[in-house]
Please model this.
Amino acid sequence: MSDILKASIEEFTLAVDNDRSRMMDVVNAVQAKYGCVSSEAMDLIAEAMDVKRVEVESVISFYGFLSNEQKGKVVIRLCNDVVDKMLGYDEVAAAFKFELGIDFGETTPDGNISLETTACMGMCDQAPAALVNDVVVTELSTDKVRRIIAELRRSLDPERLVTKLGDGNNEHDLVHAMVHNNIRSAGPVVLAGLGAGKALKKALAMTPQEVIRSLKASRLRGRGGAGFPTGMKWEFTRAALSLGSDKYVICNADEGEPGTFKDRVILTEYPDILIEGMTIAGYAIGAAHGVLYLRGEYAYLRAFLEQELAKRRELGLLGRDVAGKTGFDFDIRVQMGAGAYICGEETALISSCEGLRGDPKNRPPFPAQKGMLGRPTSVNNVETFCSVARILERGSGWFNQLGSKGSPGTKLLSISGDCNRPGVYEMEFGTPLREVLKLAGGLNAQAVQVGGPSGELVGPEQFDRAICYDDLATGGAIVVFGADRDLLEVVAEYLEFFVEESCGYCTPCRVGNLLLKQRIDHIRAGRGEKADVAYLQELGESIRFTSRCGLGQTSPNPVLSSLRNFPALYEEVLKEETRGFHRRFDLASAVSKAEEIVGRKSSHSEEAGAV
Amino acid sequence: MTDATFSIVIDDQEISARPGQTILQAADDAGLYIPRLCAHKDLVPHGSCRVCTVKVNGRPQSACTQPAAAGQVIESETDEIRGVRRAIVDMLFVEGNHLCPFCEKSGDCELQAVAYRLGIAAPKYPFLFPKREVDASHPKIMIDHNRCVLCGRCVRASRDLDGKHVFDFVGRGIDKKVAVNSAAKLADTNIDISDKAVDVCPVGAILRKRVGYVVPVGERTYDHDPIGSKIEAARER
Model:
């Protein structure tokens, strides 16, 4: 084993020239081949890449899809997102456990199949869903689970689970997925389609400064959520000092906000527009290097995207002297993630691209000054790059007329939950939420989560608010909750997500969210007190105020926005304690250990049970 | 360089700062103490504990990472900021198992001293009582993870000052912890008792063995003067 392991690690490290910054590629490859990155493997990787063992351990222990413990040949990761839980997760989870005879976190005794859960994997429009190694299985039912396990026991080949293909490029040989695009409404910008090369040709006829000027004139803002003006970002990156074209353009294809899946559809159907936008960025900024950071959950799209890149290289649209423009060299590589929501934060994403833990970085310096490997870097969202390509093709004036005054253009919305037509909707900015819900068949909602858990939970009285940067800002995730959903449960689930996905770097996000979650759990267990509202509010505000990155700052939003928009939710369950007891104190569980030891019930525990 | 200095305002007091200084450094030089835990004068800023959070022109920032810039108006000792600092220190107390009465670091501990300075008698959050390990494998040094606040000083000191990289962070979220550069124990690393990494721990997580209570309680660093006094003394002179 040792010699074989050593040989493959040498092969993997050599493939990346023993470049320490390509650590993710190496550990991903070892994980895929051996089902873990063992203690021995860590030593070998450290030796081959000339780093310390603890640095390798630091990386492996950070990412959800990497492990130092042996996993089965097949790993099933059932998505435990809120939407999956609304659409049958419990039954499906029970079926997996029953069919495999193991619990989550365990591996079958023959070492073949491991069962795990994973956070939102970008399939809320066809939930419940799971990853079986890299293969996506959707719309799960107990019947489907039975067939899946039977097939896996027979062949141990996840590819054989895909018997019916989805639409569009999901049928492509290199994608070969049962995933459906669910494009419900194609707008004029992103989902309209575009012939490869058109926008690029126009851009290359301009000077880089003119390209940036035209982007600034379009008033395009980042589509990932923060909404920073794209033209300005590029201008800063262009202006930053660097040796020649040693700068980076990074595409953030790590959409991980629970409820979002719109980038999945762009990556599947319009990769050429995305690549075109990235290439234009390279030209405008003066960058030679492009990186497409693809979330681990979308590994099934990797081969297809690699081929798209290769095709463009053949056409001369990537590589040396792009599209015949002498001196403009630009190429793109795909960087795989490994299951970490935090890597959607741009500086965390850069850390990951550098082969490190996905910790966000301190700012300043900003990526435009010092980003990837210390070089000026622009990180933009998938949708942003697509908009760029269209702006260059059609002109900033055309783009400017779409959308609302402060928010020109369109927004891709991923809509799921209690609605009749879940899927992707490209809407002009300024569209009222009500209209979106009408299109999706979700008007009966009691609440809608706009912008995912880090966004805002709104009720029907707010459905006339507009989707735009100045009102209901969103990265695109819209989750609809019908009348009979328990919204406090939704709050608890989203908090659990942040507890799981916090990188742990800064105190408030690492500890504060766990404290929030605990208190919500107490309240849900009927142990809430009136004072809990002030406690939650103050704790949430402290986390928002002191957290280091955007994700930490928005992590208490499930609590803060439900307190603001749904105060009755808390009033209904919080009672005044009149007997001077701490309701939160669970006497029955406090004495349960002692009861076990002495072998009889305490009279107190009965009294506690009556609370 | 003196002509390059500029002024910033902290809590209505105008102080001078030099280019390249952080807000924390400029405040220290001016004799204004901003509480901090992960920051250390010999180490690159980490920005992780968030105790030094201030408001810079209305926006929360960590003073240890934010460069001083001309014209900044900074709030530090306001009720709002004292409140969030207390919240953070409370979080650090409940996150670990900090038993001041028998901790060898008591009186020299920066977490304890900052808590006193902020007027914390007991944390307002419920204790999490995590199960954490003690690594006493090394003949001269021990690590008690119960008292670790994840400030990363040992990580930075070992990497940047000792050139060894004995420590690094593993895990994420609430499971994040400091690990050593070996399969299991500190004894299997090349750490040395003279390493800077051994000295920089603000709490009782990394301790020298066999020197316990050499300095009696009552004569320790913060027993008489609160933390920050030295910095503030510079102002009074």
Q: What stands out?
A: Chain A touches chain B through 40 residues (CB under 8 Å). Residues 507-527 of chain A form the longest helix (21 residues).
